[in-house]
Give the backbone structure.
Amino acid sequence: MSGATALVLVAHGSRREASNAEVRAMAGRLGRLAGERLAVSAGFLELAEPSIPEAIEAAIAAGAREVRVLPWFLSAGRHVSEDIPAQVATVQARHPDIPIHLLGHAGALPGMAELLLTAALPE
Amino acid sequence: MSGATALVLVAHGSRREASNAEVRAMAGRLGRLAGERLAVSAGFLELAEPSIPEAIEAAIAAGAREVRVLPWFLSAGRHVSEDIPAQVATVQARHPDIPIHLLGHAGALPGMAELLLTAALPE
């Protein structure tokens, strides 16, 4: 792995493999952008693998001393507010010495509105 | 309305009213950022109102001479690739003189990976 900090991009997971592939592609793009700063992987809440706990465990097994979890969700529904925190807490309890930070969901990240506006404005 | 170009932010719609409110809040934020450049509203594929055709029709009725439609979706599933284009085409057929541009979905917009990385990197 490329660093001591890992990032797990967490998505819902889909029966459509193309959607899961799109998530993995975004994780790959993030990893290339991050270079040595972050080792990036993808994890799925359901319907695809690896699961969120599996992805976090794999990052720790690969040497991460800190894990950051970014929910690739647009709105703060039950998955973001309950399911993902519960799964993160389970892994955190198994690794009390490794900080696992749950970040805000993608749809509410700072700069998101500006990015949408740039895409929406006529050239 | 604040301009001759309208933007409709299109989301799936949810039984959770808080999720729909989050979409409307994003549309509001976009409208404030856009100022006179774009009149921004929200439309929903299902489970919430207004529908996508209703939102586009409302923008045209308010004076838009061009409408841009931005799918607030992370992956290019059936909704993005089939359902939303079909609904946009229906309205376009009723208003052949008003260009209605369907933009790429949010998850694949240029700059998205960079925005996620900025949020994910430790301070």
The first strand of chain A starts at residue 5 and ends at 11.
